[in-house]
Request: fold
Amino acid sequence: MTEQPTDLRPEAATREPHHVQSLERGLAVIRAFDARHPELTLSEVARLCDLTRAAARRFLLTLADLGYVRTDGRLFSLTPRVLELGYAFLSSLSLPEVAEPHLERLVAEVHESSSMCVLDGDDIVYVARVPTSRIMTVAINVGTRFPAYATSMGRVLLASQPDDAIEKYLSRAVLTRLTARTITTTPVLGTELRRVRAQGYAIVDQELEEGLRSIAAPIRDRTGTVVAAVNISVHASRNSVESMRRDLLPPLLAATARIDADLRVAGNSPRTRR
Reply:
């Protein structure tokens, strides 16, 4: 007869009839392992999870049979197979859902606004944004579109295209002068796109709007394909181009690397829309 220990915790009385206590306890055993406790004895697992030694042993050995736990006979530890549990979650996320926690962390670090966009035809479309203060005359929301040629994210995305696609774009693009600094000739834009491709990031200095500077870097899926771009936008009065390169580029590249890593775990490129 299997052991049916009585759960005296207050929340036990409010559980729904469908509640599977053994599943709850099995997950608690997995969660007992963390950075502070990468290896645990049977007694430690029992204590941390408020289980009897016999129950803890059954859960650990079952997890070992399934490949989620390994043991040397005394110490238990998780195996890389537990990442499959997180994979199921990440693979169901949209691209903005994957990116937003990293954008929030980036904004908290640099105290400037950050956004993510994708390329749609000759425009960029914002799919995620974490603002700090409004620095543009035009409000930016998810779904906002701008011409790709005049934005840092747009240039990153254009530069990631195959050479023939870039040539086709340059042959059809209408480069309207949006400010006195906007690049409006295709040879100059072509040179700038080659520079962006070589250096791996783009800086646009007041070409979309006077007083606005931005720096952007690409987001790649597990195949290495550029699927989006992330930027940091600043007011020109507070940040020079050189200070952006020195102070903002490293945290931006660190953030995009973290997003890339999550996308590699997620497998296929996540959806761009919610």
User: Anything to note?
Assistant: The radius of gyration is 25 Å. The chain has two domains: 10-86, 91-266.
